[in-house]
Specification:
This protein is α/β, with parallel strands linked by helices. It has six helices and six strands, in the order H-E-H-E-H-E-H-E-H-E-E-H.
């Protein structure tokens, strides 16, 4: 079965969780989280959980583990905490949960970012992978980065990713 056939058999609607990890944002100022939630809904997906967490390893780990057990959640999309500072722990926590990584996600995201920002794209540690049959995606916290990933990668492939991860 080829790529197009796989894609055509993928779910049109995916149950998603959106998690923003930030010490400086509130629900009122979380533009990236709202952008993700609204974009997913506009793309026909369900947002079953939307949470804002501080950059705390134990808190983020506990929440992600809970989402991996939550019925209906097929994809977890995190925003924030993918940079280089000591407080940027999202990638480190999520990586510890992943059973399989999708190196192509980060590679493509950085390639697309390079076209817009140039060499600063190397500072993103954006990743994606699979844990317990669910997709986890970690994006930077910048709204422009979220929009780019959402429009160019996530919305076109989310159903297909979830279909393959659940096999």
């Amino acid at each position: 079965m080829g790529y197009e056939e796989h894609r055509s058999q993928s779910a049109g609607s995916v149950g998603c969780a959106v998690v923003t990890i930030s010490d400086s944002r509130t629900k009122a100022t979380d533009e990236s989280g709202r952008l993700l939630a609204d974009g997913l809904r506009s793309g026909g997906h369900q947002v079953l959980d939307y949470t804002l967490l501080p950059n705390d390893e134990a808190t983020v780990n506990k929440h992600l583990e809970g989402l991996l057990e939550k019925p209906g959640v097929q994809a977890i999309i995190c925003s924030g905490g993918t940079g280089l500072s000591r407080r940027d722990i999202t990638v480190d926590v999520a990586s510890g949960l992943l059973e399989k990584t999708l190196p192509g996600f980060g590679e493509l995201f950085r390639q697309l970012t390079y076209a817009e920002l140039g060499t600063a794209s190397i500072m993103s540690r954006a990743i994606a992978g699979v844990a317990k049959g669910k997709v986890i995606i970690c994006l930077p916290g910048a709204a422009a980065a979220v929009r780019l990933a959402l429009e160019k990668i996530i919305l076109p492939e989310l159903g297909h990713l979830v279909r393959e991860a659940a096999k």
